[in-house]
């Protein structure tokens, strides 16, 4: 293979962030190469999506393919907190005007990510599956390409006007430049697995607002000592169940991930009952040191997207939405650079970072406050109080449906009549 290959953009990673960036650029006529190390389809966590995805899918031209797949319809989220009844059921359909559609999906990421990768290839992206990127090439401070090759072969230089790092938690560029910053307040560990079976509510007896879609579900989130549990119904009678725990507390639950997971689930009455007749369908998987934020998301000739820029705690299902947003917005920034004489400087790309950080900060504020509520076992918290306050409820639903550019944490506090210092994290 020639060592003089050159592209308009090189994308490292074929998850939702990387494919979103690559698709946008290819649809604009740019020559794009995307490297994906893994063999697809492959298992990935992050199965609960948000209604804000519809706008992104429309821009990517992939809506019809996702609709045709028949994923499980998600109409909202249900929070069970400190055994306070009733649970807090938040349905996007209560305030449908904020989003293109008042529902979204629970997806098997193996299939969802494959749809996006296949769509990228159909849009003209040169998708190189089972290729590894060994390094990002720099000329001084400017990224000029990558060193990459088929898995198991020696890498070769491939040049690109722009490098988009979508390498996930590996954060290839951030680690190279020592930009990785842990978030001690989010020092959590997640244990999770799929189950065959598991209780399904009849949506017609549970979902109490808007059109009730046959077979639709909610993402369930329930607090336990030391953390919380998720319960995500998928297709084919499969249920994703996970426990997110404070790292220090988790050690008290057992010596192995399986023991810790089982102890956590047994402490959650409703999930324990829902899984009474279910069978664990896979070994427990673990993600540790959940929270991090890279110092910067851009530089001369490069952009960081998705988990390569930061990792979002899964409690509000923001990960895939933020990843796809960052990919789409990164492509916008690159196209702006092409439109301005090939200016891919850090100064021009700073607009991308500003566009990402402000709305991203809003969901991080909510995540920090979630753990403050759990730590204090606050039975009068603003989530529970949203049952009685229409304004607070509306703003929560918009934020937790992915409307990070539509509602701020300050507006939520105003609706809750809470002092700013109680919830805002500097």
From TrEMBL:
Transmembrane segments: none annotated. Pfam families: Trp_halogenase. InterPro entries: FAD/NAD-bd_sf, Flavin-dep_Halogenase_NPB, Flavin_halogenase. GO terms for molecular function: monooxygenase activity. This is Uncharacterized protein. It comes from Methylomonas methanica.
């Amino acid at each position: 293979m020639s060592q003089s290959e050159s592209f308009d953009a090189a994308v490292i990673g074929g998850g939702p962030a990387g494919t979103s960036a690559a698709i946008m650029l290819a649809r604009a006529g740019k020559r794009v190469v995307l490297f994906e190390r893994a063999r697809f389809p492959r298992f990935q966590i992050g199965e609960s999506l948000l209604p804000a995805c519809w706008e992104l899918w429309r821009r990517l031209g992939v809506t019809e393919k996702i609709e045709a797949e028949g994923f499980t319809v998600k109409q909202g989220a249900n929070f069970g907190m400190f055994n306070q009844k009733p649970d807090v059921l938040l349905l996007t359909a209560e305030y449908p005007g904020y989003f293109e559609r008042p529902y979204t999906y629970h997806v098997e990421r193996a299939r969802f990510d494959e749809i996006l990768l296949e769509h990228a290839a159909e849009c003209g992206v040169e998708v190189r599956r089972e290729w590894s990127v060994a390094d990002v090439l720099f000329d001084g401070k400017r990224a000029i390409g990558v060193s990459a090759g088929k898995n198991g072969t020696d890498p070769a230089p491939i040049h690109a006007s722009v490098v988009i790092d979508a390498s996930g938690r590996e954060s290839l560029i951030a680690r190279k430049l020592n930009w990785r910053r842990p978030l001690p307040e989010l020092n959590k560990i997640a244990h999770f697995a799929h189950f065959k079976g598991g209780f399904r509510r009849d949506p017609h007896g549970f979902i109490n607002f808007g059109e009730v879609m046959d077979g639709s579900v909610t993402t369930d989130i329930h607090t336990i000592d030391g953390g919380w549990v998720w319960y995500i119904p998928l297709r084919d009678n499969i249920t994703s169940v996970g426990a997110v725990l404070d790292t220090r507390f988790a050690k008290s639950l057992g010596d192995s991930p399986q023991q810790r997971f089982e102890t956590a689930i047994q402490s959650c009455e409703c999930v324990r009952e829902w899984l009474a007749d279910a069978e664990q369908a896979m070994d427990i998987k673990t993600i540790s040191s959940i929270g991090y934020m890279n110092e910067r998301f851009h530089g001369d000739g490069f952009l960081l997207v998705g988990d390569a820029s930061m990792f979002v705690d899964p409690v509000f299902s923001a990960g895939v939405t933020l990843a796809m947003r960052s990919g789409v917005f990164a492509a916008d920034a690159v196209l702006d650079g092409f439109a301005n004489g090939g200016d891919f400087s850090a100064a021009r790309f700073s607009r991308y970072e500003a566009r990402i950080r402000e709305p991203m900060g809003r969901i991080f504020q909510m995540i920090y406050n979630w753990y403050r509520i759990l730590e204090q076992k606050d039975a009068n918290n603003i989530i529970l109080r949203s049952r009685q306050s229409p304004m607070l409820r509306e703003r929560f639903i918009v934020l937790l449906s992915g409307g990070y550019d539509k509602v701020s944490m300050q507006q939520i506090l105003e609706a809750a009549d809470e002092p700013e210092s109680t919830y805002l994290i500097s």
